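Provenance and format

Records in this collection were gathered into a single text stream. Each protein contributes a sequence line and a token line. The two records reproduced below are adjacent in the stream.
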Amino acid sequence: MKILMVNKFLYPNGGSETYIFQLGEELQKRGHEVQYFGMEHAGRVVGNRAERYTKDMDFHTGKLQKLLYPFKIVYSFEAKRKLEEVLHDMNPDVVHLNNINFQLTPSVIYAVRSYEKKTGRKVKLVYTAHDYQWVCPNHMMRIPATGKICFACRDGRFGACSKNRCIHNSRIKSLLGTIESGFYKRRGTYGMVDAIICPSEFMKRQLDTNPLLAEKTVMLRNFVERAAVKAENGTKECGGLTGGKQNGAGETTADYVLYFGRFSEEKGIGTLLDACTALPEIPFVFAGSGPLEEKVNQAKNVENKGFVAGEALHRLIAGARFSVYPSEWYENCPFSVMESQMLGTPVLVSDLGGAPELVQAGRTGELFRGGDAEELTAHIKELWEQPERCLEYRENCKEINFDTVGEYCDKIVKEVYT
């Protein structure tokens, strides 16, 4: 089978890139041909045989080229033309769309259907919903200026995006987002795909509010591997804050609470830092980067490890007493919540979006009301003061069985691609 992965970024940038790279690699191991289409970038790590990519677009630079962006983010003639070139060179059986809005635009959907008409070949057009873009112009269902959760655009009327400046708190960008969403709604563009993969039941419910999408959605959770954590002395490594302690299973765990991910408001970092301040006796470790990094560095009982990945991150996760995921937007199916439990570390997770679906509350972790600093503080304090509960949760985490990438690959080929 020939599969073309389409995603605006073709370099490591976030969860959707982790998804397409690992899935693509597994598909290739199983004998399928996989190529990629997206933006050109100095850090690009995958590509296509035709060597066709769109020009890089950075909305955060001051280049004069940005003056043309309003015309490109609604419909990209460049993306449509270059994708058609890749399609005619590759002749794929499946085109798997991921993050396409703004930089690539849904013009790529028309490129696939145009290719079908010209060649007479049928292509299975699949989309994985990594966010809520197809029912919310700013993709998060959250008003940035106020931090409030919002469903105003879910009924297909997008004026609230402009009114609330939902895209980068900019009236012009928000107006463009409103225009883009209205344009593709009127044309029924998103209904042209054959199947929509929703990584959470929550995501599926949101997309099902659109009648064009409702009969095409399928819930298929993300995959994660159960990594083996190695240490030089043959035991699990401590985080380096304090001396490790032996738990009931003879494993060494460090005395810290862990957050790993982006340092930003929608991730609940402000709320978590309030909890850190209220609990000066508890040591916290943060691993990541983002706009709130300076505030993280100012917290007296927080050690900022910066960006950590691979084996080093696995050791950090496995060594924590528990990890905290305080997101204040509707997360889809966060890899970090899954990864923590697969490494045997309990999780404390906000009750928003698809993240709570990943936790067996009272067995592998606990939930708290998203955005509630007092409730978060109380949960952290209680878990910290009851290490035996964390040890029980650790044992229960050993029973967690999320799909591996291999199992996910089997499902997607049998249930979605064919």
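Adjacent record:
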Amino acid sequence: MFNEMLVEKGYVVLDIDYRGSAGYGRDWRTDVYDFLGGKDYDDHIDAIDFMVKNYAVNPAKVGAYGGSYGGFMAAMLATRAPDKIAAAALRPVMDWKNYFAANPGYTAQRLGFPDKNPEAYKRSSPITYADKLERPLLILHGMSDDNVHVQDSVQMIEKLIRLGKTKYFEAMLYPSENHGFVRPESWTDEYERIFAFFEKHLK
């Protein structure tokens, strides 16, 4: 519904099935192994270039938003492609070492073990690229999240503060919300914030 609303408000919206998603065969699904935010990131960059070429999209006014892995991807786009993206990241993984501690099965299948493959964890984590942030980033996270713990967003916020990047990001924490928000007022607030963020930075 939010995508439909964005279209009604004059935005061009592209929702892509990037690598790592199911339904396109094993190679497509496993192509992100050893580098989350690698080839799937490339798919997003290709999608942006496609929109600019075919739909008269202004390359200086491109945004992304997503939650969970989508929030991670939004943060990766904001930090690794600061010339292309203003992004809203909901409950994002910012450091895969944190997520390994919370969900080792999911993470090890994709990146191995952090003590044996530290470079994969480093290159796959948005916090690694925090110093590159040059466009707006909106961070939204439930403080009771027991999947992607709020420490991910807090650590990213702290690093951005230490790097002198406070003018590039906004943040909102929801004390009573888990990974999937349940309060209607929280859902309304986060999407109102995303919409206002896009109106401010993409119009």
